[in-house]
Amino acid sequence: MKLHYGGRFNTEDDFKSKGKHHEGAIAFREPGQAVFAAIANGGCIVTLILLCLILYFMAGRSIREFAPLLFPASILSVIMLIPHEFLHAVCFKEEVYLYYDPSKFMLFVHGTESMSKQRFVFMSMLPNIVFGIIPFALFLVNHNLLLVGMVGAFCISMGFGDYINVFHALTQMPKGAKTYLYGFHSYWYK
Predict the structure, then answer these.
(1) Within a domain: residue 170?
(2) Domains in the chain: how many in total?
(3) Which of 157, 164, 184, 190 makes the best surface tag, with the fewest CB within 10 Å?
(4) The pTM is what?
(5) What is the average pLDDT across 76-100?
(6) Residue 25 falls within a domain, yes or no?
C-alpha cells in the first residue's frame, strides 16, 4: 500500500485520472454524492441516538454523570477519523489517496484497485470493528467503561457510509465478482 494525501475533494474528475475502468463492468445502484451524504449523516445521527440511549440505561447513571462525558467522547471519536481512514488504506495493496470534503463532513480514502467482495467488506468494516464495535462491547462487559462505550457508539455511528457500501456489495455483487472504484462510483465485474 502506498498512501498519498489527495487534499480537498473537488470533483469526481479528480479520481478518474487515477483509475482504470474495466470494459463491461456494472455500476452499483447507489445514490449520488449529495444523497449518499444525506443518508449517511442521517443514519449516523439516528444510530448515535439509539446507542447513547442503550449506554445511558445500561450504565444506570444519572444524567448529571452521563451528559458531561458526551463532549469528550465526541472529540475522541473525531480524532479517530484519521486512524479510521488509515485502517481502510492498509487494506489496499496498491496506491490509495486520502481526501476530505468539509461541505459534506466527509473524510475518505480512494483506491482504484479491484478486490473481492470479501476483501471489500473486510476493508470497509475493519475500522468500525476496531474503533466502534470493540469499545462498545467492552462497555457491555464492564459498565464502568462508559467513556469507552461512548467513543465506540460515536465511532459505530460515524461508519454509516461504510455500512451503505457493504450493503451494496453484499446485495449487488454475484459470487466471484470483483469490485473497484472509478470516479466516485463503485463497479463490479466477473
Answers:
(1) yes
(2) 1
(3) 190
(4) 0.88
(5) 93
(6) no
In a domain, 176, yes or no: yes
d(Cα 146, Cα 169) in Å, to the nearest integer? 34
User: Residues of 159-184 as b/e, b for ≥16 C-beta within 10 angstroms?
Assistant: bbbbbbbbebbeebbeeebbbbbbbb
Lowest mean pLDDT among 9-18, 87-96, 157-166, 174-183: 9-18
Give which of 54, 52, 87 is closest to 71, Cα–Cα: 52
Cβ-Cβ contacts under 8 Å for 149 (sequence gap 6 or more): 55, 59, 135, 136, 138, 139, 140
3-state secondary structure of 139: helix
Pick from 104, 119, 89: which is nearest to 160 by CA? 104
Q: Is residue 116 part of a domain?
A: yes
The β-bridge relationship of strands 185-189 and 26-27 is antiparallel
pLDDT tens-digit map of 27-36? 999 998 789 8
Report pLDDT for 16: 61
Strands (E), the chain: 2-8, 26-27, 95-101, 106-111, 115-116, 178-182, 185-189
Least confident stretch, 31-35, 43-47, 136-140 = 31-35
